[in-house]
Design brief:
Elements (H helix, E strand, L loop, with lengths): L2 H16 L1 H6 L1 H7 L1 H11 L6 E4 L6 H10 L4 E6 L2 H14 L4 E5 L12 E7 L8 H11 E12 L6 H14 L17 H10 L3 E9 L2 E3 L2 H10 L3 H7 L3 H15 L8 E3 L2 E8 L2
Parallel strand pairs: 1-2, 1-4, 2-3, 4-5
Antiparallel strand pairs: 5-9, 6-9, 7-8
Helix pairs in contact: 8-12, 10-12
Length: 283
């Protein structure tokens, strides 16, 4: 791997670690909002009692915690993330829930430090689109799955169907005069085409690939709540916003909140959101 690619990966890993506090603060909300996606992931992956399950790029670990109910005490769920700060959050949540069949590990989605053929199920909610090389990540998922194993992954759908985040990107680009994400940085819409998403999985050797849409609307009591929460969970973007001078940051926020006001129902905001959810198997 070229030195520039290595440095990019290290930078991204540090950035995700730096926003872990926001993920912990909003973990319950992220799980509530992501519940339809998690339900579909588990439906496609079919974790069974006694299965060994791996959640990748887990953040606060909501999907893995949900899977732990299905595999039972004879099964095992490994909740992993590339950022130690994230896996620490998942470990605390698992301990608080008394999930003795859950363990955590620091694992890189593009270089999973686990043996070949070692998991019955691999899960990933909104992680594979954020790595520099999703094709490599998909090959790693194929490698660690046992023959007959099932994978289920989710990514964000088209940007035009996700104004809850697209509005933030537009506001930042207008304020700074620079594209969001910047060139060379993987963004949340990098796999927003269903055919492209499916091709990444099939090219990795996975079979029976199916991709469908799941509606994931974003609700908030106010534009201020939407802004605060979205920025806290925005990964690399969060640091970029934090670096802006005070007046510029305030102007950007005003611009974004004005744009999102169109989704005010009178009882709060309801902003459209769509995820693409894929299921696949290893023959």
């Amino acid at each position: 791997m070229e030195q520039a690619s290595i440095e990019l990966r290290h930078r991204l890993h540090r950035l995700w670690g730096s926003v872990a506090a926001g993920w912990e603060a909003h973990a319950a909300y992220a799980d509530r909002r992501g519940a339809p996606v998690t339900s579909r992931l588990l439906e496609l992956a079919r974790p069974r009692p006694g299965d060994r399950v791996l959640e990748l790029a887990a953040g606060a670990g909501g999907v893995g915690l949900a899977a732990s109910d299905l595999v039972g005490p004879a099964g095992e769920v490994i909740i992993s993330d590339v950022a130690t700060e994230m896996t620490a959050i998942a470990a605390r949540r698992a301990e608080a829930l008394g999930r003795r069949n859950v363990a955590t590990r620091d694992l890189d989605l593009e270089a999973i430090d686990e043996p070949d053929d070692s998991f019955d199920v691999v899960l990933c909610r909104e992680g594979i689109m954020l790595v520099p090389d999703p094709d490599r990540a998909a090959r790693e998922i194929h490698r660690v799955l046992r023959p007959g194993g099932r994978a289920a992954l989710a990514v964000w759908g088209p940007r035009s169907h996700n104004p809850w985040l697209g509005i933030v990107f537009d506001a930042v680009a207008d304020q700074t005069g620079e594209p969001v994400p910047p060139p060379g940085i993987p963004g949340p819409f990098s796999l927003d085409d269903a055919e492209r998403f499916a091709r990444v999985l099939t090219d990795a050797g996975l079979t029976a690939v199916e991709v469908g849409e799941v509606d994931v609307p974003y609700t908030a009591s106010s534009a201020g709540e939407w802004w605060t929460r979205t920025v806290a969970l925005a990964g690399p973007l969060a640091q970029r916003l934090a670096s802006l001078p005070g007046p510029a940051a305030a102007d950007l926020r005003d611009r974004a909140e004005s744009a999102v006001a169109v989704y005010d129902t009178g009882a709060g905001l309801t902003i459209p959101g769509v995820s693409l959810v894929a299921g696949a198997t290893k023959s």
